[in-house]
Amino acid sequence: MAILFDMDGVLIDSNQAHLDSWRKTAREEGFEFSDEIFWQTFGMTSESIVEKYWKNCESLTPDQVADVVRRKEDAFRYSIVDYVKPIDGALDFLAFLEEHGVKVAVGSSAPRVNVEYVLDWLKIGSYFHDAVVAGDQVRRGKPNPDIFLEAAKILGVAPETCIVIDDSRSGVNAGKNANMTTVGFFSKGHRVEEYQNADLVVSNYDELRAVLEIDSNGNVALKPHA
Fold first, then answer.
1. Which of 28, 46, 104, 163 has its CA 20 to 30 A from that of 224?
2. Is 136 one of the catalytic residues?
3. In 3-state terms, what secondary structure has residue 131?
4. Does residue 12 register a pLDDT over 90?
């Protein structure tokens, strides 16, 4: 049994950093990356966003897509110090789970270099050890289940015993597609209806802690009727 965390919007508040880096990269190519596109694409890999929403996306070659993604992610990492901060309660919640022996992993659509950069910068990488799966490590991104299934495999736990915490529609659906219990973490910019497939929706870590059952072996589950 384990808890699998998305990163952006669940462990860190990174909306402004991502929005600014998308806008900066788009303006370099002469168009605006709108707020509407930004919120529509939450939880998608950067490659998928460029392939679907970028200027002249139908004619982009794989190398051109990769170049856009590289420049966007470089801009994001540059802005982390100014914009990115932990979600309220996230660090205390991780310490609480570690104290009770609960296995945890990160399953993020972000590229591996960004995930590791953020975890190191926040000094929380030790909570996850080697159980980190990024979008560029699997063939299919969210809402496909690959990221979360790979995280469960690394931890050596059955998918059906895992709890996914994700703030996006695509992440919630990825958790359900992996046959995992899924918690929608309601965060800024999202709508309640995005979490219609979640088993539970919470707004903060106090709410989540209140509905967890953890036994002496570190096995974790949602309380009945939570």
1. 104
2. no
3. coil
4. no
